[in-house]
Specification:
This protein is of the alpha/beta class and about 675 residues long. Helix content is about 35%, strand content about 25%. It contains 21 helices and 29 strands. A 6-stranded mixed β-sheet has the order 3-2-1-4-9-10, with helices on both faces.
């Protein structure tokens, strides 16, 4: 028998599931809280609990596969390491394109002379001396580099030369844009490389945690990681290209949803602690986004499932919207639920909540705490208010009012949050569910106190925003229902195939849509419903999605293992390595094959196409073998661009895509 172990690490929980591959059945499943900064405790806890529940010896596990939403969550919340961009052959204003400047978030960009043209010829020699000087002048705290050169997908020579120099000088991870995409949009490739560099440390820590626990338990099986398009890649490749794991968890959830339910046409909605991910399943398969994965505010050049990811989850921050009435908004930032924080620091949490509740009024930061996410040595390379904030957290979590002494210190604290160095604890939908008795995982008493404190806040009329903790908890759950409905409607309009004339975001919230969902009947009668069922996934889906289905008049499918669908999806996929390249013709009788090793010139079109296909096939096959695939299937797709001149075709460009597919090797005793 071959047993497969799937692990999914989310913002709140790490799930593990063991499948019997021969019988296609779940043998055991388990959950453990995701533990930061030491991910190994959460990963190890989930694996150990699944093994214990199954009664299977660790040595019988034939393959381990890992999916995660950590990369997705980090981009949605604006977190990650501090990086430097090396921008070769571009002008300063191009930093403002494709959202690149926003992605840098003030991190340094080094502009260097060099680059190539569309045919792969060098425009200007690479200024390595300038690059070396600029690197030496960087301030401490850089965790990685991103390198993007003009037309690097036509000739990667300057990117690889810069990469080699940076590695020699710093020893830090370097991401080259041509390794992530074959597209020509330089600033967008640079954006993708920046995000990849920002995520390397996080994904490396997760993979290391999983590998270390496998070794401790005696699991001698290959470790795979789910990519954003649902395919499996080796752990080594995922370490180099963590950007490819954005939407890894959602992609795994789609595979898990199909495996669990047998549904072929449905909207799959997966609610986690940080995000809600919605994708259309059509004919049993998810669509691939042709424009690249979009996560939060960023459109990357990473191939992934056509998923709409929104910062809405069980641990979303609850905002009170300023105004005369009372209105709430959830997300996009994730907070540590008060009920969960009270599990580890009951004295701090309950004493503070009791003191706040005894007061006549509530302060701006009452009910909130700040937790450090480092262990041992504090973060380096900080100055000013950030350093002062870290100093106040050296002994552990504190009330937020003790972490910030003046208003100018608030932005400094938020910068520490965005770097993933600290986390804020406050009221979330998870606390609301505890307050309503729908959940009993954590400290329900602390949740009720925090809800009662929040309910004491006043709106623009001077009235309390809720009559008590139960009323506020129900309002929070109702708001989560409303925002989930919006997520599903946006996806439905986007995937419907009809040109509705307006953006899905606007249509989902249109006055007529609200009236139609209400089933309005006056002089005008108007109704609306979803035309496909909804598969609800996530541990909290049963708590919330019943009301969502009623609002949308849709059949709601909540499978038995909805809470571990990602972990199931992690082990039912296969390896698929995609490599792309182009053939161009800059002059009559000249054809250039832009291979992974650089441009090659030919006098015949077919020779150039054959050379490119052979080069791409070699790289794809090599990577598939390194991923553990023994029986490799190669698939080549060609796109030829030609125009007719006086009735005769003239070659413009050809794009080739070679895919190496296969199931990873299963370990045998």
């Amino acid at each position: 028998m071959a047993y497969l172990l799937g692990v999914d690490t989310g913002g709140t929980y790490t799930d593990a599931v063991i499948l019997d591959e021969g019988e296609d059945r779940v043998v055991a499943s388990a959950k453990s809280l995701t533990t930061r900064p030491d991910l190994s405790r959460g990963v190890g806890g989930a694996i150990d609990a699944a093994l214990e529940a199954s009664g299977i010896a660790p040595g019988a596990i034939a393959m381990v596969s890992l999916s995660t939403t950590l990369a997705t969550n980090a981009l949605v919340e604006g977190q990650g390491g501090r990086v430097a961009l090396v921008f070769i052959g571009f002008e300063g204003p191009e930093l403002g394109r494709a959202g690149l400047e926003d992605a840098l978030k003030g991190d340094p960009a080094i502009l260097v002379r060099g680059g190539h043209n569309h045919s792969g010829a060098e425009v200007m020699p690479l200024d390595l001396a300038r690059l070396e000087t600029e690197i030496a002048a960087l301030s401490p705290g850089i965790t990685g580099f991103a390198v993007a050169s003009s037309f690097a997908t036509r000739n990667p020579g300057h990117e690889t030369a810069a990469r080699d120099l940076i590695r020699r000088l710093t020893g830090l991870p370097v991401t080259c844009s041509h390794e992530l995409s074959a597209g020509l949009n330089g600033p967008k490739r640079a954006l993708t490389a920046v995000l990849n560099a920002r995520l390397i440390g996080m994904i490396d820590r997760l993979i290391s945690a999983c590998e270390a626990h496998m070794a401790r338990r005696g699991i001698a099986a290959p470790l795979m990681v789910v990519r954003g398009d649902g395919a499996l890649v080796s752990a080594a490749l995922a370490r180099e290209r963590p950007i490819e794991t954005i939407l890894s968890g959602p992609a795994a959830s789609i595979a898990g949803a199909s495996w669990l339910t047998g549904e072929t046409d449905a909207l799959v909605s997966d609610i986690g602690g940080t995000t809600t991910d919605v994708c259309l399943l059509r004919g049993g398969r998810p669509a691939i986004d042709p424009e690249g994965a979009r996560v939060g505010a960023f459109r990357t050049m990473v191939e992934a499932v056509a998923m709409r990811t929104t910062g809405l989850g069980g641990d979303s921050e609850v905002h009170l919207i300023e105004g005369l009435g009372t209105a709430l908004r959830l997300g996009p930032r994730r907070l540590l639920p008060i009920s969960l924080m009270a599990q580890d620091w009951p004295g701090l949490v309950h004493d503070a909540l009791d003191a706040w509740l005894a007061g006549e009024s509530t302060g701006e930061h009452d009910g909130r705490f700040v937790l450090p996410l480092w262990r041992g040595t504090p973060p380096q390379g900080l100055a000013g208010r950030e350093a002062a904030g870290v100093e106040r957290l050296m002994d552990g979590p504190v009330r937020m009012v003790d972490a910030i002494r003046t208003r100018p210190e608030i932005p400094a604290l938020m910068r520490l949050v965005s770097r993933g160095l600290v986390m804020i604890s406050g009221v979330t939908p998870s606390d609301a569910s505890h307050g309503l008795g729908r959940l009993d995982c954590w400290d329900a008493g602390a949740a009720s106190k925090a809800l009662a404190l929040f309910a004491k806040r006043r709106n623009g009329h001077g009235d309390r925003i809720a009559a008590g903790p139960e009323a506020l908890a129900q309002a929070i759950v109702d708001q989560l229902t409303a925002q989930t409905v919006d997520c599903l409607l946006e996806a439905a309009f986007a995937e419907d195939g009809r040109d509705w004339g307006e953006a899905p975001e606007r249509l989902a919230r249109h006055t007529l849509m609200r009236a139609a969902l209400d089933g309005y009947h006056g002089v005008l009668g108007i109704e609306a419903r979803l035309g496909v069922p909804v598969i609800g996934l996530g541990a909290s889906a049963p708590s919330y999605y019943g009301a969502v289905g009623e609002r949308l008049r849709a059949r709601m499918v909540l499978p038995e293992y909805a809470g571990v669908a990602n972990a199931i999806g992690a082990v039912v996929g296969q390896v698929a390595i995609h490599i792309e390249g182009t053939v161009t013709s800059p002059a009559a009788g000249l054809f250039i094959a832009h291979t992974p090793n650089g441009p090659a010139r030919f006098g015949d079109r077919d020779q150039a196409l054959l050379a490119l296909e052979q080069a791409l096939s070699g790289v794809a096959s090599d990577r598939a073998r390194r991923a553990g695939v023994e029986e490799i299937r190669l698939v080549t797709d060609r796109e030829l661009s030609e125009i007719a001149i006086e009735g005769r075709p003239m070659f413009i460009e050809a794009r080739l895509r070679v895919t190496a597919k296969g199931r990873p090797r299963i370990a045998t005793g």
